[in-house]
Amino acid sequence: MDEVGKTAEEPEPQAKAPLVIGVGASTGALDSIERFFAKLTLGDDQAVVLVLQNAEVLDDARLRSIVQRADSARLADIRDAMAVEGGTIYLSPPGMITTIQDGRFAVRKAEQGPGERATIDSFLVSLAEERAEQSIGVLLSGTGGDGTLGAATLKDHGGLAIAQRLASEESDHLVDSNRPAAIADYVLPPEDIPEHIQVYARHLRRLEEKQGFDEVLAAAATSLSRIADILRNKTGNDFHGYKQNTFLRRVQRRMQVVQIEEITAYVDFLRSDKDEAQNLFNDLLIGVTEFFRDKREFEVLDTQIIPKIFEGKGSGQQVRVWVLGCATGEEAYSIGILLREHMATLDSAPQVQIFATDIDGRALATARVGRYRTNIEQDMSPERLARWFVREGDTYCVVKELREMCIFSQHNVIKDAPFSKLDLVSCRNLLIYLNAELQNRVIPLFHFALLPERFLFLGNSENVTRHPKLFAPVDRRARIFKKLDTGTRLPPEFPISTSAGRAPVEVPPVRAFGPDVGLERRAQRIAERYAPAYVITDDNFQILHFSGRTGRYIEPTAGAASLDLLQLVHRDLRLELRTALSRASETNESAHAEQVQLGVNGHRVLVDITVEPILEGAGGHRNFVVLFKDGPARVADAPENNPGVLVRTEHVERLEGELRATRERLQATIEELESTNEELKSSNEEYQSLNEELQSANEELETSRESCNRSTRN
């Protein structure tokens, strides 16, 4: 291997720019650097740039001896304006910020001290913006949060991010980390990384020989639709309305990562692999946020909503905010800035806590670090930028007081318990990825999580028009709504899914109101066998349809309106009906309750109850037809005509009275149990929400401890 010194002549630029591999490492990771370069074979169309934290404290001769073990490569020290050429390993100079622009290196003196330069992030961000998919980032151990933003930016621009796996590290632990390994495409031992680089490089060369992007997009339309179907089925999120060119580029990036050349083959892989749908979903959500996105909406939030949130709250009290779909943290920090600025105007400010959640644990790694590219200068005023951010290399880092106010944790709004007792819920541009039924179930969850008369903040394409009893608009254009008092605070059921749990009573599924002719015709055919009164319910026993003549069997109870059959049915029929419904639900066969006594105008009428399960068409929804058929009224024999009847009648009436009393006590016990279960369920919701918050706090403490350890080492 030849060493190229600073006096070597500048090489002629190559016709084709090389694939650039940026390697970031700490000075304490010499073993990892050695294991990586010992296995590295560099092609003539590839260049490696080694960027080290605090390189000035490292023995330069030892570093060069380690790097020179790579096969077929030259070694060069980076100079300002030097052109990047293949077959070369470049060393970034110590105490300097190195970036790449227009195929050449740009080098300048670092203004910050050791540990605050973001040396690795500065280079990788510039590499991603310069070379897009022709770029690879390798993050070796010991860098802390430096490199996390770079890995995210590489992925956002179509490049590949690989991080070192530590021997003692489990993949589940990475979810709560702020290190690059939490966001990388691959997490591997250093000696295995060079092989993956070469496989990826060969895949890129094959793709370059294929047709152009526009032709691929036209040919891939059907496959993209199938991919959107698979994502909807596996994640519950609908990407059919996603921009096709962006959608295809994200898919192509995943194809490059898993080394699949044909999109039809990728569809099969996506369908069969248990993790790929989530990986593609995470990639589709990258890079779609910014600070103070939609300026007018944030102005309304700042001037009209935040002052109301702080009204009546002083020292010792709390302001609690939940930001869903926070991605890399820009929106959570934006709201945090507005809250902090208002707190500065108060004599006695309450404690403020922002719970920022996202389904993508890898994006949260960037949020926890709180480091962003210099393009955020366009998102806010210079005064706000100077107050809330610190310049580190070619990045900006959120100040500590703002970062400590935000707790970032992984959370799936469809599956996980909500936070509670909130003053503001911000869920902007997340609902658009959910289908209509899931949206209908999520909005009541927000209502449950908010304190009375508190606020919901949605995105421009989102609304709560289907829930007029839950929220009222404060500023319709800004999509800010106030919680309405419904008189009850029963927690919505979760996990939320398209088939589990009951639809909210005030907004039952749309099909419940529509004239489903096929469903009614099948129910009528069953009813004709018995000629009874009947009702049709869904799988949760919510009434969808009443026939005529159901009045004597239906006895609404006092309180909140309900379509629950077991709450509406006459008290005398409730116990047997519950048994029949349970049996029909479990066996999916007809169930009967015969000769049930019903009190009507002082007489006892015998009622036969039949429960018939039916399936609704191709959708497979199960419904129940509940039929009520009267028997004859019971008339007692006249005791004066038959003296023996009196004794029998008294005995029978006494037994029936005891039976009725027993049944009433049993029914009261059941209702008391149901009420207790509701209370326990509500308490359990609160405990789960508290557990979520404690877990989030623990994650934040772990991140702070890592930051403290890193500062101590520096």
Summarize the helices and strands and which ones pair or pack:
Elements: E1 3-4, E2 19-26, H1 30-38, E3 46-53, H2 60-67, E4 74-77, E5 88-91, E6 96-101, E7 104-109, H3 119-131, E8 135-139, H4 148-156, E9 160-164, H5 171-174, E10 186-188, H6 193-208, H7 213-219, H8 221-235, H9 244-257, H10 263-272, H11 276-284, H12 295-310, E11 318-323, H13 330-343, E12 351-358, H14 361-369, E13 371-373, H15 382-388, E14 389-392, E15 395-398, H16 400-403, E16 406-410, E17 422-427, H17 436-449, E18 450-458, E19 471-475, E20 480-483, H18 517-530, E21 533-537, E22 543-546, H19 565-568, H20 571-587, E23 591-600, E24 603-616, E25 621-633, H21 643-713
Parallel strand pairs: 1-4, 2-3, 2-8, 3-5, 4-5, 8-9, 9-10, 11-12, 11-17, 12-16, 17-18
Antiparallel strand pairs: 6-7, 13-15, 14-15, 18-20, 19-20, 21-22, 21-25, 23-24, 24-25
Helix pairs in contact: 3-4, 8-10, 8-11, 9-11, 12-13
